[in-house]
């Protein structure tokens, strides 16, 4: 089907051992290899830096005890206004919750609590003595009414897959888990509107919708564990944002419980409703600080009949920008992903996995383009025309189009396998930032230069240097860059070069220090790099309006003192 | 290009005298014909009902003086907490605004004030003595700082094209017009992000973008006059929402001035930014009640290379629903409009304009479908395939595809000319509502039955009856129905049959009493039909958080007393 363009030829990928794409997003694929451990001079620790995320690695870290957050951050003090939990409180909760299994108390069963106290990246660990798993919005309301009366602090928890420590307690906050509220309430195939409990797992919602020829407008790596309520309360971004927009546009309504137990039933199913303040918007991205989302209604797009995936090599970032403009123009309405990976990321993946490069050569930049449309022939024709254009004009140097699903999945691995590949040498300093496209890649270049000048970069072979390299990839279609510094060991010199330099760099470009991961505990004290004092003051007012006692998810999100 | 399907043939439209589509949306086309005046037993008045909107008709109503809102609604009292404007206040404003023309004071020039005091539908008229036209955000800040100190009430005003009396004073509030803040600040062709002043006229922004191969993600009838800041502050819906989503998804940032003069500079240009509460969302749709939007940043889609328009006849609403599902499936990503018009609307348009019907027969339902895509051949092929399907399965009874731009414009008139056609007999009772698709048209049927049973319907010929008919049309793709009751004269019997019946009907279906027009002054006291007491109480808290003195756009939006 492909035509050659100029002197270049387009190859069809012939990749061995294609595995299911669903697998590559499963949590089990995220483990750090044994080799990573061997190469690590200083073992992964939770105390290096507040902005450091260890590579998600349950199987590795399971062998080590996670340090308590309060020990890592001794400056953070328990708010003395909050009451201490008593046996009477626990008895009260047992009385208001319909099922005995809805109350998990440390004095009854300490082991089950651990999973709720420790976050997914095993960096934060709280000391909660009580987890409550309400089954209805009324039960959530009764819980919060009581907590409010007693001044007991609360952490709402969904799938606990966040990367910034937002969903686990810091001290002894009560965990309210939404895991027992996991029913689809309704789906309308004509309008595409889904109404469901907050505790429905994203993948379950997506599967339910796929059977009905629709998809959830959000997709992300943790889909097998994360809850849709958590997605909404953290305003998750992910892989489909380029095409379907943010949750602020697709979520039509929320059901939420305010800290005083008031139930806000705003589960609208209408695309248009201009009747006063759009309250749900305040809850989207509020990270559990103003109430607990117990249900959502969301507009779901139809499932695309055809999905195509292409992978390209380019010689410079200015060519990448040209390709992006052409893709937006020629692929227009079917463009569903435009992912950038720099050459070094591909080297790391190649070295770590021993897989052959998808193209004959490795280029300074690679992009992965996906289209999703209603007509396979049309989409393929558009993609071919785009390819001829960008190759004819020498915007891309080489490219390959996946011919079937398994080839597409293999190509996607060169993008989605990067977090794992980076962790191969020991660990990674990770930043999830938004940068205006004009300077999208400059952050990586500037950072790389910084480390090279400091003589800290050893590449993949020189084991005497801490830094393997400085790499960047990301959802370029959304201006969302993942700056990663893979290291052999955690090193104070490296940390000092990174912070606050990265945040200052972002601030100068009016970027965002947290594009999609949120603030949680990890970035509370860095938010001023992206939002000014006025915005923060208004945020504090909003917080106080909804949660005057401050019992919801304390110690996180934004600093409550100016 | 078209293939016949079954026993039906598809005709190409041959419509005479095609006029430019731009014209059909211009304000000048909205005048009520002389015949409408002659047939009107009781002249259009402003006192009939708070929910009644006269058909926009500057040239008709210009001959009549608009009654003051306070005379029409004597129960609404001026809030005694607000100060009275003094000559010293005016002198102060003259001192802080850079240009003498920025201050329009009644004692200097009363005539210019009239246009700012009277709303576009000439139903509401305030008694403001002062209009301020700041040129910068700093001037807006100085104005509000002073008003706040002096407790002077303020009405922000954009293009003053609203339909619910939200943009004009009720009493003596100071009008702050954004008309002198009308510059494009920046546009990035790679990301498609436009940053501009709030006072930029929507059509100007769209023209600017079209020259750069993009479009504004919003389009509506008043585009020639309305301001983008007003669009954002009223969360305008319009014609492109089906395709590009709501402003909550496309607006990336706002610059706004709070009632105390604080400038919130939240003009983000990033698609992803999860750093605290998304404050701009509170401003979108707040209708000037919490501050003044002075600038916006917005994500603009690329202009489509190809636009196709088709018009169909269908025999029942259940067939319409089937066609909608098929359109979503087969046209998918290129579907940009799915507009419903019932048969009677087409009769009214036919009678009022004497134009021949687009199809051989008039059907109980007609739909207008528009596609916008990047490849004309592909889009046409999709449309043809869709047509063969829906005609083969007898979902649609007949259809026609426009062959060029002027034919498309002629077809669009059968949808966009309906407000004018309804007003042809005198006036129209209008409701802009959202209804779940399952019962989308039932409201019209139920309402029609009600009037027929009451013996009030005279059709287009029986001049002894007030009601011409009960008709419905709307943006079906967005569940947005326009219920219209064209009448020969305004009649208390008609009003009593309509209200509160329509609102109660909507409330039972969890619809919205204001899909896209907002609340303003007209619907403040009806909002409880769409939002419950809890939501309203939270809204009051939000209002007080941003505007503790209540000086911003008082007497409107939501009732501040429970």
Automatic annotation (TrEMBL), chains A, B:
Residues in FAD-binding PCMH-type domain copies: 124-303
Major localization listed first in the record, in broad terms: mitochondrion
Keywords: FAD, Flavoprotein, Metal-binding, Mitochondrion, Oxidoreductase, Transit peptide, Zinc
Catalytic reaction annotation: (R)-malate + A = oxaloacetate + AH2; (R)-lactate + 2 Fe(III)-[cytochrome c] = 2 Fe(II)-[cytochrome c] + pyruvate + 2 H(+)
Region (Disordered): 24-52
Enzyme class: oxidoreductase
Regions of compositional bias (Polar residues) in chain numbering: 37-52
EC number annotated for this UniProt entry: 1.1.99.39
InterPro entries: FAD-bd_oxidored_4_C, FAD-bd_PCMH, FAD-bd_PCMH-like_sf, FAD-bd_PCMH_sub1, FAD-bd_PCMH_sub2, FAD-linked_Oxase-like_C, FAD-oxidored/transferase_4, Oxid_FAD_bind_N
Superkingdom to which the source organism belongs: Eukaryota
Subcellular location: Mitochondrion
Single GO BP term: malate metabolic process
Molecular functions (GO terms): (R)-2-hydroxyglutarate dehydrogenase activity; D-lactate dehydrogenase (cytochrome) activity; FAD binding; metal ion binding
Entry GO terms, CC: mitochondrion
Swiss-Prot/TrEMBL cofactor(s): FAD
One Pfam family per UniProt: FAD_binding_4
SUPFAM superfamilies membership: FAD-binding/transporter-associated domain-like, FAD-linked oxidases, C-terminal domain
Function: Catalyzes the oxidation of D-2-hydroxyglutarate (D-2-HG) to alpha-ketoglutarate. Also catalyzes the oxidation of other D-2-hydroxyacids, such as D-malate (D-MAL) and D-lactate (D-LAC). Exhibits high activities towards D-2-HG and D-MAL but a very weak activity towards D-LAC.
Similarity comment: family membership: Belongs to the FAD-binding oxidoreductase/transferase type 4 family.
Protein name in UniProt: D-2-hydroxyglutarate dehydrogenase, mitochondrial
